[in-house]
Write the structure tokens for this entry.
Amino acid sequence: MRSLVTGGAGFIGSHLVDRLLAEGHEVVVLDDLSTGHRGNLEHLKRQDELEFHEVDVRDHDEICKHFEAVEWVFHLAALADIVPSIQKPLEYLRAGVDGTISVLEAARHAGVKKFLYAASSSCYGIPDAYPTPEDAEVRPQYPYALAKNLGEQCVMHWVQVYGLPAISLRLFNVYGPRARTTGTYGAVFGVFLAQKLAGKPFTVVGDGTQTRDFTYVIDVVEAFTSAAKSDVIGEIMNVGSSQTYSINRLVELLGGEVVHIPKRPGEPSCTFADVSKIRKLLNWKAVTRFDEGVAIMLKNIDYWRDAPVWESSNVREQTKDWFKYLA
């Protein structure tokens, strides 16, 4: 099997590459390193079955040459973080829409057997129901969420018009080793672990009672590979842990002092996936307990030693556009 992973030097993508290589695949990685890091693949540099190409997926002519004989495509390449998307919406929409269409067309002309898209639970915005099912209203609150959802719509359109064998997985709050070390929101583990290493208090938004469906990255990788191996086509499925955990519980597990910063507009008080569909169609469920996952993160804490350390003062400065546009 020859598989291609866009964004394969990123957090989730690099773990997916690990899994595919372990299963005997030849793996082609396309990544422009805008959010990914070569270091995430450093441990694989001696693998003859791995090809890495530093390329922007929007460069259609350039990426097409790398799709020869590819059977599975995992499209994870995207720009990350909420605040930068508010500041640079054009870049995010070009990456999310133009980039996705470029990869879709390359996959279509290559005749791939399965196309997997990494969608985002941020498309639900502030939903009416918890746990939130796939047929909940789509309410993106900021350009990052909009770009990811428009990309998903493109994927489903290619299924409808061209019969592309594709699936979209809406991921909920993925965490684990190699989680991004930049940004003041979203990659909460990167923020908190850098603060812990620096002996700084955790910057908890609001009162910390808000909950998130933290889903361990290896479980997410299992969802992707299960979807690729299945006969399912044209479906959108949530990928979550079947639980929801408060930020206060996370702080308790990490251990440290806390400083509270203002609650931000447009943030849900809860994210919680209804995963009944993926259980039914793929027989998939997350198996990693939250405390187990956090313990693994703490064992790998040195990964975040060079990450920026956020304090309440610079978090406020970095997120001022959030309040300006979303309040």
In short: The chain has a mean pLDDT of 95. DSSP finds twelve helices and 13 strands in the chain. The longest helix spans residues 89-110. The longest strand covers residues 114-120.
